[in-house]
Amino acid sequence: MKTNKEIIAIKKKDILTISEIKKKAVPLLKKNGVVKAGIFGSYARGEAKKRSDIDMLIKVKGRKFSLLDHVRLERELQNNLKKKVDILTYKSVNPLLKEYIFKDEVKIL
Question: What is the CATH classification number for the domain harbouring 13?
């Protein structure tokens, strides 16, 4: 039978820290031409649960970032982080949601 401390440790293991996300994500982001990135949502607010996805904002400079590029980067991040990742570009954020998203944002690049 597991103790409460062991159960809590297992639960925490399923939830990445911002520094773990940064360490695993930044090399992939840079490789794909991303010059600015941030985390928002439950991970940024410290409210992530085991099944929480990672919401990420990105800015790509100097080239067109196609839908295929977007999907490829999302998959690479998901494989590396072992979590579902949703990517938005800073330009594509709904104007009605900007205030809430940017208020939560934790910059990682």
Answer: 3.30.460.10
- And the tokens for 71? 């999907």
Range of the domain at 77: 4-107
Model confidence over 15-33: pLDDT tens digits? 999 999 999 999 999 999 9
Structural domain tally of the chain?
A: 1
Tokens for 61, please give them.
């400079």
106 pairs with which residues across the strands? 39
Closest CA to 83 of 74, 91, 93, 92: 74
Which is nearest to 32 in space by CA: 92, 83, 75, 94? 75
Does residue 35 contact residue 59 with C-beta atoms inside 8 Å? yes
Q: Which residues contact 105 (CB under 8 A, 6 or more apart)?
A: 38, 39, 40, 44, 57
Task: State yes or no: pLDDT of 43 exceeds 50.
Answer: yes
How many helices and strands, by DSSP H and E, does the chain display?
5, 4
Calculate mean pLDDT across residues 62-88: 94
